[in-house]
Amino acid sequence: MTLPDLSVLREEQRDLAARTVREDALGEVRLIGGVDISASRFEQEVHAAIVVLEWPSLTEVARAGASQVARMPYITGFLGFREVPAAVSAWHDLPVKPDLLMVDGQGLEHPRRCGVATHLGVTLDVPAIGVAKSRLCGTWPELPEPVDSAVPITDRGEVVGMLLRSRLRAKPIHISIGHRISLDTAMRWVRATLRGRRLPEPTRRAHDAASVVRKAFLA
DNA sequence: GCGACAG
DNA sequence: ATCTTGTCGC
Questions:
Q1: Nucleotide of closest approach to A74 (CA, C1')
Q2: Which domains does chain A carry?
Q3: CA-CA distance, A13 to A134, in Å (whole number)?
Q4: CB-CB contact of A99 with A180 (8 Å)
Q5: Which of chain A's termini has less CB crowding within 10 Å, N or C?
Q6: DSSP state string for A116-144
C-alpha cells in the first residue's frame, strides 16, 4: 500500500466537492442501489458490493461484487480513496444500473464536503445519498426520542446533513447529500426504505452482500 | 497543545 | 471495518 500525499488528495476532494450537485437532478426512481465495502484490518483487500433493489417491492434484481488490494490504509477523512475504486469496479459489472445509490458512509458531512457517497456519486455522476452510522463532523441540537424525529447537522455554519431517529432507542443515523439529490429528497428515500430497521434496506443488504464477497474471496 | 476521528 | 456469546424484548 503506497503512502498517499494527503495534500494532493485534499485538492482532489476539493475538486470533487466543487462538482457536486446539491439539488434534485434525478429521474423516476425504479431501481435503488445499496453500496458497502467489507474489509478486515488484518488483510490488505477491500471487498465492494452493490445490490440493486426494485422500488417499491425492494426485491433484489441484481448484484455485483469486486475484491481489490486497497490503494491506501484507512485514514479519517480520506475513505473515498480507499473504497471508491472497488465500488466503481462493481458498478461496471452490474447488468442493470440503479437510478439512485445509497452509500454506507458520509456524503457532505465531511470536513471538505467529500465523503465516500459524494466521492462515488460524482465519480460516476449518479444520484447518491450518504447513510452513516456515526459522526464525522458537525453538531446538532438534542434529538427527540420518538421514531422518525430528525434534526439538522451543522458544520461551520452550513447544514451538512440530518440526524435521524430511524428506530426507537437505537443510535440515530446520519443522512447527507451525496450527489444530484436534495437533502429533503434524500430523507424521503431513506424513510421510505427503512421498514422498521435502523438502516435502510439498500445499505443493509449491501452490507450482507459485501460480507459474502469477502467470504468468497477468502475461500 | 488538546480533542475528534465515516469505514 | 472485524472479532464473537449470550441476552433482552417484541
A1: B7
A2: 6-218 (3.30.2170.10)
A3: 21
A4: no
A5: C
A6: HHHHHHHHHT--EEEEESS-SS-B-PPPP
Nine cell digits for residue A99? 437510478
Rounded Cα gap, residues A145 and A31, in angstroms: 32
> Which pTM does this prediction carry?
0.96
Give the annotated binding-site residues of A for Mg(2+). 36, 104
State yes or no: cis peptide before A56, omega within 30 of 0.
yes
3-state secondary structure of A85: helix
Residues A9-61 pLDDT 10s: 999 999 999 999 999 999 999 999 999 999 988 889 999 999 999 999 999 99
Beta-sheet strand order (sheet of A173-179): A60-69, A45-54, A31-39, A100-104, A128-132, A173-179, A158-164, A150-155
